[in-house]
Specification:
The protein has 189 residues and is an alpha+beta fold. It contains three helices and twelve strands; from the N terminus they run E-E-E-E-H-E-E-H-E-E-H-E-E-E-E. The strands form four sheets. Strands 4-3-5-12 form a four-stranded antiparallel sheet, with no helix packed on it. The chain has a four-stranded antiparallel sheet with strand order 7-8-6-9. Strands 1-2 form a two-stranded antiparallel sheet. The longest helix has 14 residues.
Length: 189
């Protein structure tokens, strides 16, 4: 396996192909594992990048933000959303996927986001795309399809950023998959 020193500022570590799906490691998120039924208390760490070793440690929940480019789009459908296939409209995910097919996003992978039962739909790309471009295009396609994008219903990552003091805000962060409560969502077809 190749050694990766770019993410860690010179500390050698073994580069993991799966973990390389999340190359932007600055301004990452972390939370202690919450008690059952409690929500995580997320904090942003901006002093240093998240390393592969930090992810593999498993001592806390982790999340990442997007950099200027990305190789995937992520849609977050909360458990209480009208778009949830089990607790809401069982055909909504088909409509969401159809809307994104017009952008050439024809394949997705569904995982539960956490013990809450929410769903993360990952749409991978073969190339890097500017994060703001895919965020804007996905939001536009959802609007054209009559699909509401808002917290607690359906969120797009990377998100369409807001501006603070004339500068763009950070992209919203999302929880990394396959942590406690996150697994393949086989009920999503």
């Amino acid at each position: 396996m190749p050694i990766n020193t770019t993410l860690t500022g010179g500390i050698p570590e073994i580069q993991d192909k799966f973990l390389s799906l999340w190359p932007h490691r600055w301004d990452w998120l972390h939370s202690a594992h919450p008690r059952p039924g409690d929500k995580p208390q997320w904090h942003t760490e901006g002093r240093y990048p998240l390393s592969d070793r930090g992810i593999l440690d498993g001592g806390r929940l982790l999340g990442v933000r997007f950099g200027s480019e990305t190789k995937y789009l992520l849609l977050d459908i909360d458990a209480g959303s009208p778009y949830h296939p089990v607790k809401g409209d069982r055909l909504a995910i088909h409509r969401i996927r159809a809307a994104l097919e017009r952008l050439g996003l024809c394949e997705s992978l569904a995982v539960t986001s956490s013990y809450s039962g929410g769903i993360h739909l990952y749409f991978p790309f073969g190339i890097e795309i500017e994060s703001w471009v895919i965020a804007s295009a996905a939001a536009h396609m959802m609007a054209l399809s009559g699909i509401t994008v808002e917290p607690g219903t359906l969120e797009i990552f990377p998100n369409v950023r807001t501006f603070e003091d004339g500068r763009p805000s950070l992209f919203n962060g999302h929880r990394l998959p396959l942590q406690p409560g996150s697994y393949s969502a086989t009920h999503v077809r």
